[in-house]
Amino acid sequence: MNKKILLFGGTTEGRMFAQYLSGTNADTDVAVATEYGQQLLREKENLHILSGRKDMCQIRQMIKEQRYVCVIDATHPHAVEVTKNIQQACQQTNTKYYRLLRESCDAEEGVWVDSIEEAVCFLQKTTGNIFVTTGSKELNKFRVLTDFSQRVYARILPVAEAILQCQQYGMTGKHIICMQGPFSTEMNVAQLKQIQAKYIVTKESGKTGGFQQKIEAAQQTGALAVIIGRKNIEEGFSFSKLTVELQKQYSIVAKRQVTLLGIGAGVHTLTQEGRQAVLQADCIIGAKRMIEALSHFEKESFVSYESEKIAEFIIKQKQYKNIVVAFSGDIGYYSGAKKLYDLLKDFEVNTISGVSSVSYFMAKLHTSWEDAKLLSLHGKKESVLGHILQNKKTILLLGKKDDAANICSMLCKKGLKNIRVVLGENLSYDTEKITNATAEILQNIQTAPLAILYIENEQYLQKKQHFGMCDNAFVRGNVPMTKREVRTVLLSYMMLKQDDIIWDVGAGTGSVSVEMALQCPFGTVYAIEKKQKALLLLEENKQKWQCWNMQIIEGNAPEILKQLPAADKVFIGGSSGRAKEVMKIALEKNPQAYIIATAVTIETIRDLEESFSELDMHWQCTQIAVTRSENIGKYHMMKGQNPVWIYWGSSTMKGQ
User: How far is CA 402 from the centre of its chain?
Assistant: First the structure.
């Protein structure tokens, strides 16, 4: 059976009905008068957009050629001539005609007139600024007003044709307000106050035309509404009744649609597209906070945030044809929408993302965030220190009330107490709060459940260093230091991972500790040292290279090691003959610990070989002898360095 329909749209209700038809088994052509109207609609497989004004003959010809089963008139209530042309074309082709009515609103206050001419006649006897919201098409009729160019402020569509028309009427820039509706009451109030209007001229355009919001704004500002009412009470169908009629007459049935909607940072940031989706929905699903935020739409609802339960509800509750599943913020970032994509394969799933709390927050801070690291702590643990060390800007979506305090406390312990921290709570809600402080100030704070933390680290590591740094890159003093060539080889044997926990026993100047810390930004390097001179050098090199994930431990090994967390990797650069005890403690804490050690004396070589063997470890050894050139006058002589033995091993020797 032919199910081809011609819909004359362009109005808000027309676009809404076009969207409904796109989700049915009907093939629909939507006729709009302007290119701007065309831009507001989206073509789909069964929805085609026809742009351009058409007279009665052209409409009749279209109906004959395409053999539409019916024509739906959703043009503006005051587009009387267009409606007449559509009706005549349908009569002459014996095609069923349906009028889609706009839901009307009642206004108790205001002056009601039958036409724009009557409105102008009334306003001619008044003084004060006039806010005209009837568009540019009939603005010419207001030019008879005394001081027209000074009194009248017109709100028109943001198209060149309309602007040019206003200018031709003698209106200047500040009297021309170019915006696309519908408009909220708050927006109307702001504009009425801005232009100090005493009168607002509007047509009785129904709920979708924003009429009620204009009347409410007039009441709040004390402006008098001049209302151009309908001459006759129209006959036709409401949205819901027309869907029933089409199903009855032509078996046009809506496919079950599910819209995954990000409502934004809060209900105040809901996009216009999102609002339209909720208006058309017959059921809303989401967590309690989402349902409460959308409660003013007065839709049936189901409270749940678990993907499996949501999918089960949708599948079983077949009476709901158009369902909205509401999520906070952006549905593409750590959102429950991800699971639903797979669970709802048999449904037509639409997606509408919202204004994320991150973009809202950073705009409030007047700060760009394309170079920021974005992390979410919702329902999971995340090592944030490494990200803060490597990035100037870090943004954290917090999951618990004490997350901000824990992070700031950790930063203070690592020597970053003065780092800039900005906390955003309940963003876009009436209880919104933004606190600009330091880590030290916020280390004991309890936040609202909905919170974001922005951390700005001016001392971040702008360039990751490759291991094998020059010896003169470190503060050396008179403490022995592992030289560059040896350091490069032993670090290559360590097979470092970014989140390794490492013990550096006998850290000395800290050249090895620093390099390991730079390679493991998400881990921690414990630099153990007992000599005071070396401890001072360790601190200087830590500060120089901003190794906040390097913790200096003063004390004797192996005793001090019992207090430390289990290590993934252990480097023994000096143990005063107690290497075996160090290894034993490391293996007790972590049997898979990977151990590497260096020796320059025969006694230490013997000690290490015995230790690895007695602890039943698999081990290997490399002896490295380095000869460096040295300037002697105008000549270069090669000078040998002490040979170094490098031992490495573990219980498994995986990867070796």
Answer: 23
CB 221 within 8 A of CB 192: yes
Residue 576 binned pLDDT confidence (cut-offs 50, 70, 90): confident
pLDDT of residue 232: 47
What's the confidence (pLDDT) of residue 462? Answer: 55
Alpha-carbon span 122 to 112, nearest angstrom: 10
Q: Check: CB of residue 41 under 8 Å from CB of residue 64.
A: no
pLDDT exceeds cutoff 60 at 8: yes
Q: Does the structure show a pLDDT above 60 at 104?
A: no
Range with the lowest mean pLDDT among 234-248, 461-475, 525-539? 461-475
pLDDT of residue 594 exceeding 60, the answer is yes
Please give the Cα distance from 597 to 648 (Å, whole number): 6
Q: Is 464 a residue whose pLDDT tops 70?
A: no
Instruction: Give 323-344 pLDDT, tens digit per residue.
Output: 999 998 778 877 888 888 888 8
Q: What is the CA radius of gyration of the chain?
A: 37
Q: Give the C-alpha separation, 266 to 452, whole Å.
A: 14
Beta-sheet strand order (sheet of 393-397): 373-376, 393-397, 451-456, 420-425, 433-438
Nearest residue to 522 via CA among 389, 374, 398, 379: 389
pLDDT value of position 71: 96
Identify which of 149, 580, 232 has the alpha carbon closest to the alpha carbon of residue 132: 149
Residues 6+ apart with CB under 8 A from 136: 154, 156, 157, 162, 165, 166
Question: What tokens does 51 get?
Answer: 């742009």
Contact 131, 192 (CB under 8 A): yes
Residue type present at position 538: L
Specify the residue for token string 């059921």. Answer: 283
Per the model's pLDDT, the better-predicted residue between 480 and 143 turns out to be 143
Task: Catalogue the E-assigned strands of 573-643.
Answer: 594-599, 618-624, 627-632, 635-640
Q: Is the pLDDT of residue 580 over 90?
A: yes
Q: Return the pLDDT at 379.
A: 60
Beta strand ranges found along 161-287 (DSSP E): 176-178, 197-203, 224-228, 257-262, 283-286
Side-chain-facing half-sphere of 409: CA atoms under 13 Å: 9
> Which residues, including other chains, have CB under 8 Å from residue 416's CB and lie 6 or more apart?
388, 439, 457, 548
CB 294 within 8 A of CB 267: yes
Max Cα–Cα distance, the chain, nearest Å:
112
- The residue to which tokens 């000096």 are assigned: 574
Please report, for residues 56, 198, 266, 282, 331, the alpha-carbon distance to residue 259 in angstroms, rounded to integers and kept in the order given: 38, 43, 18, 11, 11
pLDDT bucket at 655, cuts 50 / 70 / 90:
very low
pLDDT(441) > 70: yes
Check residue 566 and report its DSSP letter.
Answer: P
Calpha distance 563→575 (Å, rounded):
17
Is the separation of the CB atoms in 586 and 520 below 8 Å?
A: no
CB under 8 Å to 454, separation ≥6 — which residues?
Answer: 361, 362, 365, 367, 393, 394, 395, 396, 421, 422, 423, 424
* 3-state secondary structure string across 107-139: CCCCEEECCHHHHHHHHCCCCCEEEECCCCCCH
Q: In the block, which residue shows the tokens 């007139």? A: 113
